[in-house]
Amino acid sequence: MECWICGKTADSSEHKIKKATLLKVYGNDFKHSKMAHIKNGKLSHLQGPNSKKIKYENTLCKICNGHGTQKYDRSYDTFFDFVQKEPFKIAERRMVDFYDVYGSDFISGQLNLFKYFVKLLGCDLVTTGFEVPPDLIDLLGKRQFRTKLIVTFAINIDKLLLKNPNDAGMGIGPLIGWYPDKEHAHGTPEGYIWDIFFSFLHIYYWYNRPVDRPLGAPWIANNRYIYLGSFSSLSPEQRE
Asked: Is pLDDT above 90 for 74?
């Protein structure tokens, strides 16, 4: 397999959930934690943060997955730390000011955060058997770009009922391909919808698809503020 970013031999795998994130939440020894892995309704336990169950196949080369995208990873780590420390503040305001996250360097901070999200999507696409759209590969090397990808952020209000929302788990959702009609429902989809989540905060990807639910304002690394949508999977009776 070739690295989807540069085309060299893919000899490195990306975590589906960042290793640094897992270590901060669960520590290094999963045997004595409450950590559980759920996929397709099947529950299992992980031995540690390097388990193959939470890593993609080799879809990147070591250079691209290391030095080439390191600043994207650091930007996500900073964002994750902010979300973990301020769950109720974020929920109350329904907004995140990137200045609060990255300080005066918020323009570069949010740009690299967006590119981290692109990196993760690219790995998921390749692992699923799809090609990464050219505009996603191209934007990784630019400060200004055009792309068909939109990202939105939304709060799962059910998870805020927990005493500590950070205990609500983290993960990725299914990658949904979109075809114009049933007759052409094969080959490469024309669009995708995907999501990842940490606890109460869900991050949605809309590639060549409109945002069709109240799941936040569109963002493409072009705004100091991100405005959050919200949703609930419980009925009003269940929430009471």
From this structure: yes
Q: Tell me the three-class secondary structure of the chain, residue by residue.
A: CECCCCCCECCEEEECCCHHHHHHHHCCCHHHCCCCEEECCEEECCCCCCCHHHEEEEEECHHHHCHHHHHHHHHHHHHHHHHHHCHHHHHHHCEEEHHHHHHHHHHHHHHHHHHHHHHHHHHHHHHHCCCCCHHHHHHCCCCCCCCCEEEEEEEECCHHHCCCHHHCCEEECCCEEECCCHHHCCCCCCEEEEEEEECCEEEEEEECCCCCCCCCCCECCCCCEEECEEECCCCHHHHC
Domain residue extents for the chain: 70-239
Q: What is the pLDDT of residues 195-239, one digit of tens each?
A: 999 888 999 999 999 998 999 999 999 999 999 999 987 544 444
Identity of the residue numbered 229: G
Report which of 68, 24, 22, 66 is spatially closest to residue 47, judged by C-alpha positions: 22
Q: Is the pTM of this model over 0.85?
A: yes
